[in-house]
Amino acid sequence: MLTFSTLGNPYEQHKVQITGEGYSESVTFEGLPQDELAIGDCIVGKSKTMTFQLANNGDKAVRFHWNVGDKEEFRLFPS
Q1: What's the rounded Cα separation, in Å, for the pair 28 and 61?
Q2: 8 Å CB contact between 52 and 35
Q3: C-alpha angle with apex 16: 10 to 17, nearest 5 degrees?
Q4: Residue 29's CB: how many other CB atoms inside 10 A?
Q5: Under a CB-based contact definition with an 8 Å cutoff, are residues 2 and 20 in contact?
Q6: Which among 19, 28, 43, 78 is placed 20 to 30 Å from 6, CA to CA?
Q7: pLDDT for residue 9 is more than 80
Q8: Chain mean position to CA 4
């Protein structure tokens, strides 16, 4: 229940009941600029760094497999 007052009239109060639906994800990406992984333009032969975290919000361990083929440029540094 949300209760709010009218500006300039502290005696008038309104009550609004809000109903919604939520969800929870087991693993979330955190620290992404603008909440998305947008690498943008890249220059051939130059490295580009993006920093973000993976957070396990569940109660079980999560394993990841990154299919990067024979590329060594894709690196993860877990903390």
Answers
A1: 13
A2: no
A3: 150
A4: 13
A5: no
A6: 19
A7: yes
A8: 30
The answer to whether the beta carbons of residues 46 and 38 sit under 8 Å apart is no
Instruction: Give me 77's structure tokens.
Output: 């540094």
**In the predicted model, is pLDDT for residue 48 greater than 80?**
no
Residues in the chain, overall count: 79
Q: What is the dihedral of CA 68, 71, 72, 77, to 10 degrees?
A: -20
Mean pLDDT score, 36-65: 83
**What mean pLDDT do residues 44-63 have?**
84
Q: What is the CA radius of gyration of the chain?
A: 23
Mean pLDDT across 50-74: 79
Which amino acid, 73?
A: E
